[in-house]
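ESCALATION

Customer reports they have been waiting on this structure for their group meeting. Please prioritize. Original submission:
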Amino acid sequence: MSEIRDPDAEAATGVFVEHRELLFGVVYNMLGSVADTEDVLQDTWLSWSRRGADGVDNPRAYLVRIAVNHTLQRRAVISRRRETYVGPWLPEPLVADEDGADDPALRTESVSLAMLVVLESLSPLERAVFVLHEVFGYAHTEIAEILDRTPAAVRQVAHRARAHVLARRPLYEAHPRVRREATERFVKAAVGGDIAELMEILAPDVTVWTDGGGKRRPTALRPVHGRDKAVRLLTGYAKRGGGLGSALELRHRRVNGDDAAVLFRDDAPYAVIVLDLTPEGDRVRGLFVVTNPDKLSHVQKEEA
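Update from on-call: job pushed to the front of the queue and completed.
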């Protein structure tokens, strides 16, 4: 007996698969969590499959609208979860393969980890507008249709969001070679507990975020501000063999599109380290260390 196929269902599936990476990028940049992004995409698929592609003039716009609306609803769930989260919360990093051939950040147009941290300070609506306009290039009129707002209201939200982001992080990118060299220099100094070198490479106003989610020790329960405190924190880790120690194997990877470091212990991912450099590229002004194993489950170690 031959299998009976539903051409409408097949068409709907094909359209969704065609736009899935775009949807992943939009939702991930609004949530900073791969697991929550996948849940939203599942909800989006269910909504889309019930509606179907027949009669939809612009499936891309329609799917983005569904995904964004589900994402805004998901933000409420995430906010409640954050209330009981142990320590600083950092976005879940997108880590490329060893050779960079399968870089999810390049495919999904993800912004840097440092920028995602800044976006956490926006309201859900501001973040949606910023991501759609600044990252994916949607016009204000298109965003107005997606969010069911007037173009004038969207322009106002966009102006407020952009001003807030620029006040906290100028839109510049360090040269990849500079970032790679700074990362190698920092990791070497941190692993060795080299106080003099750390004092040289860290900016006076550096901030260190360590996200272990209460599942890794030792980690700081709040962001650490200032070079002196940061050096004490990092050298303390090295002495105790904690977050940075000789038992860990270092691999250089691209994380959210930037050169970064990934530490492995017994072939399992232990930490992702991302630096945010000063505009000159010679000092570290932000250090993000993700050790929560739930956020590293997608990281694989290839053979050297």
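Sent to customer with the following note: The mean pLDDT is 87.
Escalation resolved.
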